[in-house]
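Troubleshooting entry. Yesterday's outputs looked truncated, so today I'm pasting the complete records for two proteins to confirm everything comes through intact. If either block looks cut off, that's the bug. Protein one:
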Amino acid sequence: HVILPDASWPEELGLLNQLGFGPRPEQVICAPREELARHNGHALDGRRADLMSGTSLSARAIAATQGLMVRAPDHDVCLRANLKSSFQGWINRLGWRPRGIVVERDKVAEAISSMLVQNGRVVVKGDHAASGFEQTVVGRGDPLPDCSGFSRESGLVVVQEWIPHVRTTSIHCEIAKGGSVLLRGITDQLVEGVHHIGNRFPAAPMDPQ
C-alpha cells in the first residue's frame, strides 16, 4: 500500500496506471495531514513501512498512526547518513574519489584555494546539498562563493575535487542489519548544469568508450 496526505492525491492516477506507472487506486490510502487518523478500512497494524526518506518526520508520524513498523534506522542515524560531511568522511577513509575536505564555514576560502592547487575546478557543498541547492562549482580565477547561508545547523562545508565526466549514475542499495548489501537498481541522473532535475530508470547501457 501507498499512504499519501489528502493534498497529494493524484487525480491522474488512472492515466499513470494505463502508462504502467504508479500504484493502483486500491493500493492508495489517504491520511489527512491535520488528523493523521488511523485508517480503519485497512488492517495495517504490524505491517512494514518502507519510507521514501528515513529523514522525514511526517512520514514516520503517518506510519505510527497507521500502526506500521518503520523499516529504517532511527531518525538521527538517517540524518547523519544524509549529511555530505558524513558521506565525504566515509569516502576519505576508504580512499575513494572524489577526494575532498570537510571544513567549518569560515574556512571555506582557505579550503578552496588549497584544493585548486591540484584541481582546475572544485565543487563546494553544504551539509544538506541536493539538486544544486547549497552547491556551486568554482574554477581557478573565479570569485569565491558566498557560503554564509550553507549548513546552518552543522556549520560544515565540503570542498571536493571536480571529476570530468560524461554521465552520472545513482546506485541504489539496501544494507541489511547483518551487513549484506542488495543492489536495488541503477538510474541515470538528469542534470542541467549542477542541478539534478530527475532520474531515468533503468539506466542506459554503459558505452565502453
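Protein two, checking that the full record survives here as well:
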Amino acid sequence: SKGLGQHLLVADWAYERIERRVAIESPEAPQTVVLDPESDGASLRVTVAARSGEVVTGALVTALHRDSLDRRSAVSDDLGAVLLRGLPSGPIRLIVSREPFAPATAIALNLDEHRVVETTVLLENGHLVEIVAPTSSGEVPFSIIVRDHEGNPINSLMAAESALVVEPEKGATIGPLSAGRYSVELRSGVTSKRRDFNVADKPLRLEIR
C-alpha cells in the first residue's frame, strides 16, 4: 500500500493475525511488525501424503507426548495438512492413520516452545498378515494384540475389518501393515503366545505354535 494512514495486514498460520494503521512516510520505507505466536507452547504442522505423491485427506493425526502422555488429534484437510497448536515442548510420538493405508505409528519428533515444527508423513499401502492360531484349552478363541517395534499396541489403528480374535487352529487376517518389525500376542485365558515378525514386500502367513 502507498500513502499515509494505510492499513497494514500481516498474517501467518502459526502467528496471531495483526492489522494496524501505520503512517507510511515513503513508499520505499520498510515497516517492521513483530509477530507473536498464536498460542503458548509448540506448534506442529503435518502434511500427509501417499507414497505415490497425492495428498491424503481425512487422515487422523495424533501427537502423543512421551513424558506427560498429553494427546492432541486432528484430521487432515483438503490439502492433506494438519496444524496442532499449544503443544507441550519435548519428545512426542506422531501417529497417522487412514484406511486403506497402513498406519504410521512410530514417528519421533522433538518440539520446542514457541517454535513451529513441520513434517511430512508418507503413508504406504502395506500388506496383510494371516495368523494361524495354536490349539487352546477348551477350544477358547484367542484375542489378538499387535504391537509395533517400540511395543506400542496398534490394534485400533488397523483397518476396521482386521480380526481381533482367532479361533484355535484357524486363521485370521490383520493389517494392512507397512514394512517393519512387529510382534503379535495371542491370549486365551491364562495361555499367551507371542511371536515377533517382519513385514517386507509381500503378504505374510504366521503359524503360532
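Both blocks look complete. Sanity check on protein two: The two ends are 75 Å apart (CA to CA).
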